[in-house]
Amino acid sequence: MEILKTEKLNLGFQIKNKFYQVLYNVDFSIQQGETFAIVGESGCGKSMTAMSIINLLPKDAKITSGKIFFNGQNLLELPQKELQKIRGRKISLIPQDPMTSLNPLFTVKEQVKEVVEMNSDLRGDSADKRIIELFDMVKIPNAKNRLNAYPHEFSGGMKQRVIISMALAANAQLIIADEPTTALDSTIQLQIMDLLEEIKKEINTSILLISHDLGLVANYSQNCAVMYCGHIVENAPTKELIKNPKHPYTEALINSLPNFETNTITSIEGQPPSIYENIIGCSFNPRCKYAINECHKNFPNSKKVGENHIIKCFVKD
Question: What is the pTM of this model?
Fold first, then answer.
C-alpha cells in the first residue's frame, strides 16, 4: 500500500528580489513498511524535500507547484490546523544533529513527556510509564533511572535514542530520518540504523531515510532515489541501483566508496553548483565524463531503463 507520493514538486527561495529554484519536479513514492532513501551530496535538496512533506520550511522558501499525497490526501491543500494533526502524530521527524536537537535546560523526561502528552490522553504517572516503555523500545539502559537526566549526561548515541523515542511517541505511520547518524562514530551509526530497522518491523511503520552515505543506504533501504541539484536523476530498487547504476552521477557516487581491495577512493571531480549558478542543460554536465552536446542544451526527461528503474540522462540507457 502506498503511504506517501510526491508529484512534480517544485520549491525555491525568494532572496531579495530574485527567486532561486531548489527542487525540480520531484517524483517518488513510499510503500507501507518500507525504507525509502534519498541520497546525494550535501546541498542537493534532500532535506528540503523532507521538510516540504511536513511544511517545516524556512520563511523564504516556497513550494511553487506539485502535490504531496499522504494516505491519498494532498498535504499541500490542507489548512495549517489540519496539517498540525498529521505532523508529529502520523508523520514524525528524526532531525539531523542529536547534539543540538535536545534542550539542555530540561530533563529528557520533560522533553519526551511533552510529545507524549501532545499525541495522547496520557498524563502524570501514565505518561511517565509510556516514556519508560519508549526508552526500553529504543534500548536505553536502566530507563527508569534515566528519566530525570539532562541531555549532557547522555552520549551522542543515547541522545539519538531519546530523539527516536520522541518520534515513536505517536506510533507514526511515516518516520522521516534526516541524516540520523550525523556526528556519530561508525559503530554507533550501525547500532542506530539497526534500531530503526527493528522498530520499523515491530510497529510496521515506513521510513524516509535522508543520507549522503550510499553505503548506509545500500544496507538499510529497499528503494532509493539519487538526487543532484534538486533533481531526482535516478530512482530504482536499492539492490538494482547499486548493482547496475545507470546515471553517471550514481556511478560516480558508487565509485567514490572506499575500495578495500585496492585501498583507493575515487573522488568525483568538481563541486556541486550552488543555487545561484545558472547551468544550462543537465546540471551534472560540468562534472560528467560522458557529457555530449545535448547535455549542455537541455535537461533530460525521465526514461525507464528497467522494471521500476528510472533515470534522467541523454547518454545512458
Answer: 0.93
* E-only strand ranges, 197-239: 206-211, 223-228, 231-237
Question: Please, what is the Cα angle at 218 between 217 and 219, to 5 degrees?
Answer: 90
d(C-alpha 171, C-alpha 167), whole Å: 8
Pairing of strands 35-39, 206-211: parallel
pLDDT digit string, tens, across residues 63-118: 999 999 999 999 999 998 888 889 878 999 988 776 778 899 999 999 999 888 88
Q: Give residue-wise pLDDT tens across range 122-131.
A: 898 889 999 9
Q: Determine which helix (DSSP H) or strand (DSSP E) holds 112, and give its type and residue range.
A: helix 108-118
Confidence of residue 313 (pLDDT cuts 50, 70, 90): very high
Which of 190, 241, 230 is CA-nearest to residue 36?
241
The hierarchical CATH code for the domain 2-90+170-311 is: 3.40.50.300
Helices 156-168, 186-203: crossing angle, 10 deg rounding: 20
Residue type at position 49: T
Give the pLDDT mean for 163-184: 87
Distance (Å) of CA 102 to CA 141, 211, 303, 317? 19, 21, 43, 46
Where exactly are the structural domains of the chain?
Answer: 2-90+170-311
